[in-house]
Amino acid sequence: MIKKEEINHIVKLSRLSLTEEEINIMEKELFQILNYVNLINEIKDLDKIQIENKKIKNNILSLLREDEIKDFSEEEKEFIFKNFPEKENSFIKAKKIF
After folding, report:
1. Is the pLDDT of residue 10 over 60?
2. Which residues of 37-55 are buried (b: 16+ CB within 10 A; e: fewer)?
């Protein structure tokens, strides 16, 4: 877990003024981000490690699968578009991730 002193140092460097509650939230969020980065690094190193359980390896590697372009029929496109809540012109709108 990231230490309180490290959070306070980051806050000071970024010249933020945060309440204690905001610092606690930031601590949790940074912890989650660092865990995710560690997971990605572990996945990158999978080629160097022998994994006995191939099912686990396949599940992890499927996170990094190559994108595939699928050509939908006009009927499929219309069905998707009709059932999507937000649309703009001929595009469907999704919430921002970041």
Report:
1. yes
2. eeeeeeeeeeeeeeeeeee
Determine the Cα angle at 10 with ends 6 and 15, to 5°: 145
Structure tokens, 88: 């703009």
- Distance from C-alpha of 16 to C-alpha of 13, rounded to nearest angstrom: 8
From 8-17, 19-28, 38-47, the region with the lowest mean pLDDT: 38-47
**How many angstroms separate the CA atoms of 63 and 32, rounded?**
18
Alpha-helical segments (H) within 1-98: 4-13, 20-44, 54-61, 74-83
* Model confidence, pTM: 0.43
